């Protein structure tokens, strides 16, 4: 592993460990992975070290694999307009209704990926983790309907997330 990733990764793991002591947010009861798979546009996020350079056209694409894991491909454009891609793998946490995943971009480390709110038509999703440090508002389209955005962010507040530091990348595609 490259040294530049070691400190942030260790900090992230420590944050997740400390979060276990707090009551975690609740997830949706169930996620249909066939409906969830595909490309999502990032509408807003809490600051995340690994996305610090992602300023435009931020997407995450989930593809179901034959072994029932998900291939994860994150894509964005940085400040210079250059494309940045990361690839990982996610597995469902047993007995979670598919609402909790463990995602790995750097083996052997994993991070929780919890679906906290999901529009009935799978047009928008709110994803976070137990410590409430990270949060993503995702949409199937580059711009999200204001009513769906309000519903998702209200749910985030109900779950105890602080939203004063949300980052909203440009979506221009």
Automatic annotation (TrEMBL):
Which interval of the chain is the signal sequence? 1-21
Pfam families in the record? Lipocalin_2
Primary place of residence?
A: membrane
The answer to whether UniProt assigns keyword Cell cycle to this entry is: no
Which Gene3D superfamilies does the record associate with it? 2.40.128.20
Instruction: Enumerate the spans annotated as Lipocalin/cytosolic fatty-acid binding domain.
Output: 31-171
**Presence of keyword Transferase:** no
Question: PROSITE patterns, per this entry?
Answer: LIPOCALIN (PS00213)
* InterPro entries referenced in this protein's UniProt entry, alphabetically: Calycin (IPR012674), Lipocalin_ApoD (IPR022271), Lipocalin_bac (IPR002446), Lipocalin_Blc-like_dom (IPR047202), Lipocalin_CS (IPR022272), Lipocln_cytosolic_FA-bd_dom (IPR000566)
CDD domains documented for this protein: lipocalin_Blc-like (cd19438)
Where does this one sit in the cell? Answer: Cell outer membrane
Q: Give the top-rank taxon of the lineage listed in the UniProt record for this protein.
A: Bacteria
**Record key words, sorted:** Cell outer membrane, Lipid-binding, Lipoprotein, Membrane, Signal
Query: What function does the entry list?
Result: Involved in the storage or transport of lipids necessary for membrane maintenance under stressful conditions. Displays a binding preference for lysophospholipids.
The family line of this record is: Belongs to the calycin superfamily. Lipocalin family.
Query: What do we know about how this protein assembles, alone or with others?
Result: Homodimer.
Protein name (Swiss-Prot/TrEMBL): Outer membrane lipoprotein Blc
């Amino acid at each position: 592993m490259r040294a530049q990733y070691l400190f942030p990764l260790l900090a992230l793991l420590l944050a997740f460990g400390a979060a276990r002591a707090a009551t975690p947010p609740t997830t949706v009861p169930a996620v249909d992975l066939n409906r969830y798979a595909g490309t999502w546009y990032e509408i807003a996020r809490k600051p995340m070290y690994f996305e610090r350079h992602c300023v435009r056209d931020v997407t995450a694409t989930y593809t179901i694999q034959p072994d029932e894991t998900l291939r994860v491909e994150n894509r964005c454009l940085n400040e210079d307009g250059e494309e940045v891609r990361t690839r990982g793998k996610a597995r469902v946490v047993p007995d979670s209704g598919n609402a909790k995943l463990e995602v790995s971009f750097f083996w052997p480390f994993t991070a929780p990926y919890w679906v906290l709110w999901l529009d009935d038509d799978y047009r928008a999703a709110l994803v976070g983790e137990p410590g409430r440090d990270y949060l993503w508002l995702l949409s199937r389209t580059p711009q999200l309907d204001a009513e769906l955005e309000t519903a998702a962010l209200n749910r985030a507040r109900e779950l105890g997330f602080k939203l004063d530091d949300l980052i909203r990348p440009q979506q221009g595609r």
